[in-house]
TrEMBL record:
Mg(2+) binds at residues 220, 282-283. This is Amidophosphoribosyltransferase. The keyword Nucleotide-binding does not apply. In the C-terminal section; belongs to the purine/pyrimidine phosphoribosyltransferase family. It comes from Chionoecetes opilio (Atlantic snow crab). The gene is PPAT.
Amino acid sequence: MTFHSPQILERGVGLSTQSDSELITQMLSQAPPRGEKDKPDWGARIRHLIEATPTAYSLVILHEDKIYGVRDPFGNRPLCIGRLMPAGSTTDDGPRKPLGWMFSSESCAFQSVGATLMREVYPGEIVELSPDGVRSLDMVPRPKCSTPLSMAHVDPDHVDHEDILLAPPPAFCIFEYVYFARADSVFEGQQVYSVRQRCGQQLALESPVDADIISTVPESATPSALGFSLESGIPYVEVLCKNRYVGRSFIQPDTRSRKLAVVKKFGALTENLMGRRVVLVDDSIVRGTTVGPIIQLLRQAGAKEVHIRVASPPLKYPCYMGINIPTRGELLANQKPLDELANFVACSAVLLFTIGHTTLTVHLHRLRQSPDPHCSWCRKVSETIEHFLLQCPRFHSHRVVLRSQLLTLNVTTCDLPTLLAGGGWRPPSWQHAVIRLTCAFLRKTGQL
């Protein structure tokens, strides 16, 4: 999103913060390139915003008596539509009309106000809530969508019955299932709790261990630990008491703050630990700032052995979608080989890191026919180099330079096979120059 800052500043607008929300507001304040008639066309303005900024956000925009819900074309971040019904939803005259509708990033929020989940906002969709009801205004496809999207009829349960464009193949962040989302939220037709529990069951099959008790790092890993216990037959016992007044350690700005947050966050249940072999199930290991202090805490409380089981693949790559994982070097999985991580966290216990690469993909119900409908870039290189050449917003400024350099050679494509093979453009002697420019770009992305 920050690559739009120079464009905003060139119009004489001063930015008072580094927030993406301020940039979005400024972009919405300008008319779209196609122009407007006598008043702002908010649907067109939002569409222009989505086309200019394909990743990664979910937005709720309030304007007068209307609310717009917007999800980026990749569907990387969640956004749901809720429906608030009156008490006694049916009468002798038939179903009652809804009292209202609402947006939320997670469906769990609807329960607290007596609403129910209607559906998720589709990737690239613009949904309008007004006194007249719910209306799907537009569907913006993912960048470089070469085939036309087919038409589909909206589910009869939805308020509007117009035909809308099918959502493009999604790239929903799998870390929502692993850590971010509350366990009672529903994504893609399945509850997060159930997904995590199935991951724990699969992990027990992949990496069995001889132990006395199964436990967890509360709270996001609890369903996975229960699944591990259910599959292995080893009883589940709580060994950590969580201080609920301490925030998430993952999102702290630096390593020292994250370690201090861990120390304040957990206390050991000594009587449950004394002399026992413990399997501690965690949802993920990112920087390793949590697992080391926790293992030391369990050992000091009397645990005989501590075995670590991780219910998701290792994070090896930065997140280019806005999550605070800026460099490869700070990720624990990149600092040491997996079989040496026990010594790295300075633990005398029997520390076994087990990475279940299939625990998520095996159990996710594919709602759309796509080979890889979830974003898993941080865990495996699922995107091709073409992702950097065409889409990744982090390298937009470098991509602009590359394209301008290619244009000087009369090369109008960024298709990697075409660039490297020299097909479709002449003279062939320019092939070396094109390869050199492309490789220079890839070095800037850190992928070469």
